[in-house]
Design goal:
Helix content: 10-25%
Largest sheet: 12 strands, mixed
Radius of gyration: 19 Å
Structural class: mainly beta
Number of strands: 12
Number of helices: 3
Number of domains: 1
Strand order of the largest sheet: 7-8-9-10-11-1-2-3-4-5-6-12
CATH class: Mainly Beta
Shape: globular
CATH architecture: Clam
Mean pLDDT: 76
Distance between the termini: 38 Å
CATH superfamily: Lipoprotein localisation LolA/LolB/LppX
Strand content: 35-45%
Length: 236
């Protein structure tokens, strides 16, 4: 059983993942990818189910203890309702958060998306991809993109006010691309510090039930931190 603090951390991580991820507006189907960072050296499998303005992300986090499996977290985004639903299958619970209104938030920072084509082309997961390189978050970033899977829509680094849009995400969004591979390095020739790559794509109709919490799941309400602190403070 996952403890409440762990639940909060996993839920927060999933919400962050949603805002750094992409929605394929013109594609319906399933996309499998793997993500790896040099920070923890664990390869995380991620599966996207895409249908119009809906997206479902399934991710199994690496366990912090040897011999134990990681926790599975499912995140569902509904752009029409401007909502994100986080499912916790191990506990049969879910919580709902509102997406920020980006049109009303004028404080979001943007970055220059100066990426240049290298002329290199490669087939990734069965799709023709072209490489672009540039700087994103002060790191050399290599992006392999295609236009065969729709486009990335409004990717962001986080829901908080003033959150910055990464340069590579802005470039992909503006170009109407879908990123099949993203690799980051400190500089040219340096080891990879981050890799995210699509490994399999399956086009096809997706059932509506994938984008709703199961009927036997209990809704979880995040506690109000102010009320929690009041209960902890000594009375006078």
């Amino acid at each position: 059983m996952i403890s409440c603090p762990s639940f909060y951390r996993l839920a927060s991580a999933c919400l962050l993942a949603v805002f750094t991820a992409a929605i394929a507006s013109a594609f319906e189907g399933r996309v499998e990818m793997k993500m790896k960072s040099s920070d923890d050296n664990n390869e995380i499998p991620i599966t996207y189910f895409l249908k119009g303005t809906h997206m479902r992300i399934e991710m199994t986090t690496a366990s912090s203890q040897a011999g134990q499996s990681g926790a599975t977290v499912v995140t569902i985004m509904d752009l029409e309702k401007r909502e994100v639903t986080v499912l916790m299958p191990d506990q049969k619970m879910y919580m709902v958060q509102s997406l920020p209104d980006e049109t009303a938030d004028k404080s979001r920072k943007t970055t220059d998306a100066d990426f240049k084509p290298t002329g290199q082309k490669e087939k990734i997961a069965g799709f023709e991809a072209e490489e672009y390189t540039g700087l994103s978050e002060k790191k050399l970033t290599e992006i392999w993109v295609t236009k065969e899977l729709g486009e990335f829509v409004a990717p962001r680094q986080g829901p908080k006010k003033g959150a910055k849009t990464s340069a590579w995400a802005k470039f992909v969004e503006q170009g109407g691309f879908f990123a099949l591979r993203v690799v980051k390095r400190a500089k040219e020739g340096a080891p990879e510090s981050f890799r995210q790559e699509v490994t399999k794509v399956e086009k096809g109709a997706q059932p509506d039930a994938l984008f709703l919490p199961p009927s036997d799941y209990q809704k979880f309400e995040m506690p109000n931190m102010g009320d929690m602190m009041k209960g902890m403070l000594p009375s006078h």
